[in-house]
Amino acid sequence: MKQSSSKILNEVKYIENNLSTDSRGLFLKFYEKNLISDFQVSEVFYSSSVKNTIRGVHLQKKPNELKKIVTCIEGVVLDFFIDLRKESKTYGVYDSITLLDKTTSVYIPNGFGHGFSVLSDIATVMYIQDGDYNQEKEVGINPLSLDFNWKVETPIISERDSSLPEYSNF
User: Fold this and answer.
1) Which CATH architecture has domain 2-169?
2) Domain limits of the chain?
3) How far apart are alpha carbons 120 and 102 in whole angstroms?
């Protein structure tokens, strides 16, 4: 496994997954405990979404912050992350990466909002989290309030995500 950083936000890490294929199919190593030194798997989530879906932008407030590693197992997603740490020099700075078919994962540190849009007919995404999900501590931003091209035609967004505050009011 190899690791590199986002060109804009060096705390966000891109992980090239070890993928082997042969006549039987494939074998994928998408996590290794020494890859991110302070990351310990607490929970694993799996989502399946249709084209034009936007999920997020979410994060959890202190002291229940979450770090996560996100992998697109099937399909193609545009993965988005934004620094929402008020004290950070890069507060409000965002970047994105296209994740497809298990080849790359992205590490999202504490204090970063995260979301993605589905570019293929269907996409399956797996999240490995360091920390436990706590709905009462979850906050977010309406994804359509950001000056970001989600690359979808007609966005499909949950009622919960569309009712989140706009970025300017976060």
Assistant:
1) Sandwich (2.60)
2) 2-169
3) 14
Q: Which amino acid is at 150?
A: W
- Counting every residue written for the chain, the total comes to 170
Where would I find the beta strands (DSSP E) of 23-137?
Answer: 25-29, 43-50, 54-60, 67-74, 76-83, 94-100, 104-108, 112-118, 122-130
CA separation for the pair 134, 99 (Å, rounded): 26
Report the percent of the chain where pLDDT is more than 90: 75
Task: Specify whether the CB–CB gap between 84 and 113 falls below 8 A.
Answer: yes
Residues linked to residue 160 through DSSP beta bridges, in sequence order:
none
Token duo for residue 110: 């504490």
69 - beta bridge partners?
A: 107, 128
Q: Name the pLDDT band for 4 (thresholds 50, 70, 90).
A: low
Predicted confidence at residue 27, as pLDDT, reads 87
- pLDDT for position 7: 74
Q: In this predicted model, what pLDDT tens digit does every residue of 112-132 receive, in sequence order?
A: 999 999 999 999 999 999 999
Q: Is the pTM of this model over 0.70?
A: yes
Tokens standing for residue 20? 């082997």
Alpha-carbon span 127 to 168, nearest angstrom: 27
CA 145 to chain centre: 18
- Given a cut of 80, whether residue 163 has pLDDT beyond it is yes
